[in-house]
């Protein structure tokens, strides 16, 4: 199965899909979303005990994903791009999606093992052990669970793949070689999660998902892999406290 884990047959530059200003505009929208969410979090995100409000998190999660997807859709409309240009076509086979899905777990486990080895060697790794846990539990209100389920398992895989793979990665491929495009788009995906404990593994996962997109020619491969990882994480978060 892993015999297919290799660069695409040709590593030549592809025809530019996006202008540089399209990618910069998309990144500017991403920064604006972060700024607005940070302001909203300070104003409304914490309860009287200093804990994050699950309802606020659920609503902002959905809003953030809709804004990301909407920004790419708007840019594509302005450029006259079709869904197929973004990779929204059925892949010739789904094996690449499975490689990306289980490969993501391999990256997460390898990162965990690395931290254990460093800790055993006397290195303080506490800064890198934080995870992006969802502020939700089984007894949360139905509306919170529904919003988070939609936002995390459906909207996030679609919108983040549209932004980081269809816009950023495919845009970079018009100007840079494959490895550089994989690296830069992967790092951007890791930084997007704004948690030093997950930047490195998520950057590697982002590069893996970009490879899946390149290899299959379809964005659905990385969307399916992303949705699989997020769905398992969501179910674990909900059932952990039950």
Mean pLDDT: 87
Element-by-element helix/strand order = HHHHHHH
Low-confidence stretches: 1-9
Instruction: Please indicate the percent range of residues in DSSP E strands (runs of 2 or more).
Output: under 5%
Provide the number of structural domains. 1
Proportion of helical residues: 55-70%
| Shape field | globular
Distance from N terminus to C terminus (CA atoms, Å) equals: 37 Å
Mind describing the biggest β-sheet? none
What oligomeric assembly is this protein in? Answer: single chain
- The counted number of beta strands is 0
Rg = 18 Å
| Annotation field: number of helices | 7
Q: What structural category arises from helix and sheet content? A: mainly alpha
Give a quick summary of the entry.
67% of the residues lie in helices and 0% in strands.
Topology, element by element:
Layout: H1 20-44, H2 54-79, H3 95-120, H4 142-172, H5 178-192, H6 199-216, H7 219-240
Features of the shown structure:
single chain, 242 residues, mainly alpha, globular, disordered N terminus, 7 helices
Would you kindly provide a written description of the structure presented here, covering whatever features stand out?
This protein is mostly helical. The chain has one domain. It is 67% helix and 0% strand. It contains seven helices and no strands. The chain has helices at 20-44, 54-79, 95-120, 142-172, 178-192, 199-216, 219-240. The longest helix is centred in the middle third of the chain and has 31 residues, at 142-172. The radius of gyration is 18 Å and the shape is globular. The relative contact order is 0.17.
């Amino acid at each position: 199965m892993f015999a297919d884990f290799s660069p695409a047959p040709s590593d030549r530059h592809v025809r530019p899909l996006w202008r540089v200003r399209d990618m910069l505009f998309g990144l500017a929208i991403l920064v604006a979303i972060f700024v607005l969410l940070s302001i909203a979090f300070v104003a409304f995100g914490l309860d009287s005990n200093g804990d994050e409000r699950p309802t606020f998190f659920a609503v902002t999660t959905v809003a953030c994903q809709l804004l990301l997807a909407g920004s790419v859709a708007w840019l594509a409309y302005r450029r006259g791009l079709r869904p197929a240009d973004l990779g929204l076509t059925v892949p010739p086979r789904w094996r690449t999606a499975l490689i990306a899905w289980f490969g993501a777990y391999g990256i997460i486990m390898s990162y965990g093992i690395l931290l254990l080895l460093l800790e055993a060697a006397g290195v303080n790794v506490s800064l890198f052990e934080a995870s992006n846990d969802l502020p939700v539990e089984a007894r949360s209100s139905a509306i919170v669970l529904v919003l988070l389920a939609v936002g995390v398992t459906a909207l996030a895989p679609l919108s983040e793949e549209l932004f980081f793979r269809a816009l950023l990665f495919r845009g970079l491929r018009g100007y840079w070689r494959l490895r550089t495009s994989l690296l830069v788009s992967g790092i951007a995906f890791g930084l997007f999660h704004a948690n030093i404990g997950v930047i490195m593994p998520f950057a590697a996962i982002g590069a893996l998902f970009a490879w899946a997109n390149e290899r299959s020619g379809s964005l659905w491969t990385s969307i399916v892999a992303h949705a699989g990882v997020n769905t398992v994480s969501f179910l674990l978060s909900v059932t952990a406290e039950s």
